Amino acid sequence: MRLTEVEAYAGPADPGSHAYRGRTERNAVMFGPPGHAYVYFTYGMWHCLNLVCGPEGHPSGVLLRAGEVLDGHERAHQRRPKARNDHELAKGPARLATALGVDRRLDGSDVCGSPDAPLSILTGHPARPEQVLSGPRTGVGGEGATHPWRFWIDGDPSVSPYRAHTPRRRNSTRRQVGT
What we know:
By secondary structure, the protein is mainly beta. It has helices at 73-79, 93-100; strands spanning 2-9, 37-42, 46-52, 61-68, 132-135, 150-153. Helices cover 8% and strands 21% of the residues.
């Protein structure tokens, strides 16, 4: 897989980060050494993959948002049967994790070790600097929305569309008890 879109998160200084409110069982890997996978489960059905990149004890990471499948198209299509074409296989963070077969079992995996590991980062060919754009992170609101920490390859069809943060609405109707 060739990464085409990522988002950075700066731990306790970043309201958009899972580590903003401190260490939990869910985000503990973010506080560990760099070069490990932080995999979390979201919306009760999807996994997302981050790479821990800060020094040990300082939680920061990069969410892998989108990519182009270069090898293993058949397997990726088996994992993502609803993808209409190759560009949709890993277009978005949950789709990327699904196409790669990533789930919580890979949380904490060393991705900088052996290239034969279930998940590893390999040297590739970087995009030309003028092709890499940055802007606000997708779906991040409040103070976290001000950071232009989303990076993508301009014009790449596997890049997911930008979505501004939409605040959750609280249920305004009250239930009457005892009637």
